[in-house]
Specification:
The complex is a heterodimer of chains A (463) and B (65). Chain A has 463 residues and is of the alpha/beta class. Chain A contains 16 helices and eleven strands. In chain A, strands 1-3-2-4-6-5-10-11-9-7-8 form an eleven-stranded mixed β-sheet, with helices on both faces. At the A-B interface, α10, α11, α12 and α13 of A face α1 and α2 of B.
């Protein structure tokens, strides 16, 4: 393979037409991995032998028939909190350095069954929390747009790997923004689906009632292709929704004329003022949506800090419960950042937690009412462009509110897509939120935006 | 709710959580405790009767089969 890195959709078309060999594509990915991973630290474990075997099997199957789907022969990465049978799954922690699961997480199983090629396990903040940490077995992932800068997290390696062209897509997890944060700062697309749409079985928990699994890729269209494989009921996940899975790609390219988009201006203009670059990206995106025929309206929700307080209290407490035993017995084996956050869990009372869960019900009802006459809510995704990796505050979650956690609190689907470039040429992003299980609409609007703007044409130069 | 926490209260909570931490760590936790208080106040607002945890007790088809 020579030339530009294809998207999943482009590669799938070429593979189906037998103009692109999965083996060649896989080799091209590994060439980039071997050349760049020592700078990006996107991967913590490579599965080269398995990947080439999978690619050869895909090629043989396609040469004698047709691909089994759009992901057949596509190189991907799995966040290292996703269990993979016979392959180390360390959760980025000293505690699980020798952990080799004896079964696959459901998402890993589904992607393998779809014929994807596993390039390896991608870097994660420790147990999908904190970060960047420099006291873990492996260094944190770096932003391909500027390697001195942060990727955000916790799905840091998947974000860096996709932006750097090491993989075409991958799995992220999102408890307060861990898919959408890296997607924003690395200039890619990342979808947090509706709570329960994608199985969490076999994925290390962060906070049970806020955890989501979802696709990350260069484009929204690619996220749709991945979601098609990932969505569906799984009895192994107690929160799994038992609903029919629609065709997520069927509406792509049909335009968004008449789509009702509500903008939560007060989140990024009043509750917390975002950077000039992020603000400009949002304003330009609104103009783009207007130009595409969407109806733009204003949405008023509770202050961002209310959503953050609710989500953070729930997250801290559920995390403290999930990791209680190791917190008591192996506290010093966690990174300093995660130690601090686990200690903090001891200061939240049971009553605080229940009050937060009660508040959550009201906030969700509020979003439901606000979206009654809308198809999409548009909000900021991050406060600013990627900070320098060594300048992220120890208590970063208290330094600025999260623009992504409101939609973990509500469980609504939300995608982050690139909306241009701000200070230092670093990506800025918007967040598009849909009604529960309305991923088809979210993806259609995101895809229309990407195709109406030039931001998918620029890749990091990694000079 | 007071925005600070006494040494005794902090020690009690840490002991209850099974945590044995350094003096510097305790001082840092005391410093950030105000953030917990602020958040706890934000989730204590007037609310309606639907705002409770009933969703935990929804029975599924399997439960009633």
């Amino acid at each position: 393979m020579t030339g530009a890195i294809p998207t999943i959709a482009e590669a799938a078309r070429l593979i189906a037409a037998r103009q692109l060999s999965p083996v060649e594509l896989t080799r091209a990915c590994f060439e980039r991995v071997h050349a760049l991973n020592n700078r990006l630290h996107a991967f913590v474990h490579l599965t080269e032998e398995r990947a080439l075997a999978e690619a050869r099997a895909a090629e043989a199957a396609i040469m004698t028939g047709a691909p089994k789907g759009k992901l057949h022969g596509i190189p991907i990465g799995l966040k290292d909190i996703v269990d993979t049978k016979g392959i180390p799954t360390t959760c980025g922690s000293k505690i699980l350095q020798d952990n080799i699961p004896d079964s696959d997480a459901t998402c890993a199983e589904l992607l393998a069954a779809a014929g994807t090629v596993l390039i390896g396990k991608t870097q994660t903040h420790e147990f999908a929390d904190g970060g960047p940490s420099f006291d873990l077995p492996r260094p944190p992932a770096r932003n391909p747009w500027e390697t001195g800068h942060f990727t955000a997290g916790s799905s840091s390696g998947t974000g860096a790997g996709i932006a750097g062209g090491l993989i075409l897509g991958g799995i992220g997890t999102d408890t307060g923004g861990s898919i959408r944060g890296p997607a924003a700062l690395c200039g890619i697309a990342g979808l947090k689906p509706t709570y329960g749409l994608v199985s969490r079985a076999g994925v290390a928990p962060a906070a049970f009632s806020l955890d989501h699994i979802g696709p990350m890729a260069w484009t929204a269209e690619d996220c749709a292709l991945m979601l098609q494989v990932l969505a569906g009921h799984d009895p192994r996940d107690p929160a799994s929704a038992d609903r029919p899975v629609p065709d997520y790609t069927q509406a792509l390219g049909r335009g968004i004329k008449g789509t009702r988009i509500g903008v939560v201006h007060h989140f990024h203009e009043v509750d917390y003022k975002v950077s000039e670059g992020v603000r400009a990206g949002i304003d330009a995106a609104i103009a783009t949506f207007r130009g595409l025929g969407a109806e733009i309206r204003e949405v008023q929700l509770s202050p961002l800090q209310d959503w953050g307080a609710c989500g953070s209290l729930i997250s801290m407490t559920e995390r403290a419960a999930a990791y209680e035993e190791w917190t008591r017995t192996r506290l010093r084996d966690f990174s300093e950042r995660v130690q601090r956050r686990l200690m903090l869990g001891a200061l939240v009372s049971g009553v605080d937690y229940v009050q937060a869960v009660r508040r959550r019900r009201e906030l969700r009802a509020e979003l439901h009412a606000a979206m009654a006459g809308l198809d999409i809510v548009l909000a900021a995704s991050q406060t600013a462009e990627a900070p320098k990796i060594d300048e992220v505050p120890a208590w970063d979650s208290f330094a600025a509110p999260s623009f992504t956690i409101p939609f973990n609190v509500a469980g609504y689907p939300a995608i982050t897509v690139c909306a241009g470039f701000g200070a230092g040429g670093l990506p800025v992003a918007i967040q598009l939120v849909g009604k529960p299980f309305a991923e088809t609409t979210v993806l259609r609007v995101a895809d229309a935006f990407e195709k109406a703007t030039p931001f998918r044409d620029a890749r990091p130069t990694l000079a | 709710m007071p925005a600070d926490i006494s040494d005794e209260a902090l020690d009690f909570l840490l002991r209850r959580a099974g945590l044995d931490i350094t003096g510097a760590e305790k001082a840092e936790l005391k410093e950030v405790y105000a953030n917990i208080v602020r958040m706890a106040e934000r989730v204590r607002q007037p609310r309606g009767r639907m705002a409770e945890l009933a969703h935990v007790f929804n029975f599924t088809e399997d439960d009633v089969a």
